[in-house]
Design goal:
12-stranded mixed beta sheet; 6-stranded mixed beta barrel; globular
Length: 414
Amino acid sequence: AFECGKMRMIFKPVVSRTQRALQRASAASSPSLFGTTRTSTNPKRFISSSQLSVERISDNDRFDNRPAKEDLVFGTTLSDHMLTVEWNAGSGWSPPSIGPRQDLKISPAASCLHYGLQCFEGMKAYKDLNDGSIRLFRPDMNMKRLSNSMERLEMPAADFDHEELVECISELVRTDERWIPEGEGYSLYLRPTVIATHRYLGLAAPDSLLLYVITSPVGPYYKSGFKPIKLMADSTYVRAWPGGTGSSKVGGNYAPTMKPAALASEKGCSQVLWLFGENDEATEVGSMNVFFHLINAETKRPELVTPPLTRGDILPGVTRASILELARSWGEFDVSERFPTMKELVDAANEDRLLEVFGAGTAAVVTPVSGIHYKGVDIAVPAVGKVSRRCWDEITGIQYGKRACPEGWSIKIS
C-alpha cells in the first residue's frame, strides 16, 4: 500500500467471502437458475475476483456532505467508489478494479450511445437489523439475468463467472459499507451495468465492453407509509411483445415508456398498466411485474395471478420469483402464471371478486394499487390487501435478517 495524493492505493487479491454461500444458493435453486458455470481453462473468458485491485479514496468530503438519510431521493446520491471491468476481443476480461467513482470517458462513436447496446441490473445491500452484518438478496438471480440480457444483445463474454462477479460486487459493498444507512427501509442500491464501447459507427456486435457497478444509498420507497397508487391501462402504447426484449433488462425498454408515463400522470395516475394483444392482456405495471389476487370465476377459488415468462415479453423479476415461491409454500390459494385480460379484471371488479392488485420490484418491493383507469372508467381496487402486505412483510423481513428464509436467499457478505 502507498499514498498517492488523497488516494490510498491498495492492490490485493480478494479472498472470497461469498462464494460458499452462493454455491449453496445455486444448489438450492434449479440447475439453470445460476447460469453458466466455469468449464473452460481459458482465464480470459472469465472475471476473476482474485485479480481484483482496490484503490480507496481518503477524502471524506462526499461522505461528510451526504444528505441525512431521511432526505435521500432515490438514485441522486452516489457513493465514493465504483467497480470496473473491461473486455475486448483481443485480451478478454481485464483484472477488475475498485476505485474512486468518476465520469466515464468513451468514444463519441461508442455503440452504446447510438444503438442502445446497454443492459443493467438493480440490486440492494441491506444492513441486518440484529447484528449489523451486510446482506445481498438472491444475487445469483441478478447475475443470470445480466448474462441473459448480454446474450440477447449479442454482447460477447455473456458467459462470465457469476460467482466471481458477485464477489467483486461484494467487495465494492464492503469498501463503501459506511454508506449503507441504518434502519429498516434503508439500503445501498447497486447498479451493475454493461455498455458496448465499440468505437465505430457501423452496426455490429461490439468488440469491446465496459462492465461497471455504482452504488447509491436509498431510503424507504414510501416515505409516508405503504401508499397505494392508481394505474392507467391503455393499449395505445406497448411496452414489449413476443420476440422483443421485454424479458431482458436493457435500456431500450425504458426510454419509450417516458411518454405514456407522462400521459398517465396527466390523468392523475402514477403508473401505466401495460396491455398487449386484441384482448388487452395485462402484462406489467410501470417498470414492475404485476400481481392480481381475485376469486376465479370458474373455480370459485381465490387465485394469485401474474403473467408468465413463456412469451418473452415479461421481465423475470427477482421479487416476482420470490413472491411466487412464497405464495406457493403457503398453500392458501391457487397461484397461476397466465395473462389476465382487462375484461376478466373488469368483470371481477364489478362482481366484487377483485381482491387486490400490486406491483413487485427491487426498488419498492411491493406497490399496492387502489384503482385502474381503463377506457374512461375508473375501476376501484381494494387496498392495501392481505397478500400484498404479507409479501412485503415476508420479503423485507428476509432482506433485513428478521425472518428465516429458503436456502441461499439472503447472502451475508460481511
